[in-house]
Design brief:
Layout: H1 5-27, E1 30-34, E2 40-45, E3 50-55, H2 64-98
Helix pairs in contact: 1-2
Length: 99
C-alpha cells in the first residue's frame, strides 16, 4: 500500500491531525434553543451538557408543571441538534478514513 516509510509516516501524521481536528470540531459545538413561547433559552455543548440557561420575565406566569415541561422540552431540542451536528462530524470523519 505504501511504497516508502516516508509515505506511511505522512499518512499516519495526516490521520492523527485529522483526529485532532475532529476532537476540536466536536468540542466547539454549541447549540442555543429557545422555547416556542420565548420563555426559556438553553445552550448546550456537543455532549448535551447544559452551558447556559436564560429565562424571560414571562416565566413568572407559568405553572410549575408548565415550566418544567418547557425547560425539559427546550433542553432536549438543543441536545438533539447538538447530537445531530456531532453525528455529521463523525460521519464525515469516518468517510474520510475509508479512503
Amino acid at each position: 500500500m505504501y511504497e516508502t516509510m516516508d509515505e506511511l509516516e505522512d499518512a499516519v501524521r495526516r490521520r492523527l491531525y485529522r483526529m485532532r481536528d475532529l476532537g476540536d470540531d466536536m468540542a466547539a459545538i454549541r447549540v442555543r434553543e429557545t422555547s416556542p413561547d420565548g420563555v426559556v433559552t438553553v445552550e448546550v455543548d456537543g455532549n448535551g451538557k447544559l452551558l447556559d440557561l436564560e429565562f424571560s420575565e414571562a416565566i413568572s406566569r407559568l405553572a410549575p408543571s408548565d415550566f418544567e415541561k418547557t425547560l425539559v422540552d427546550t433542553a432536549m431540542a438543543a441536545a438533539r441538534q447538538a447530537f445531530a451536528q456531532r453525528g455529521e462530524l463523525i460521519e464525515a470523519f469516518n468517510e474520510e478514513m475509508r479512503r
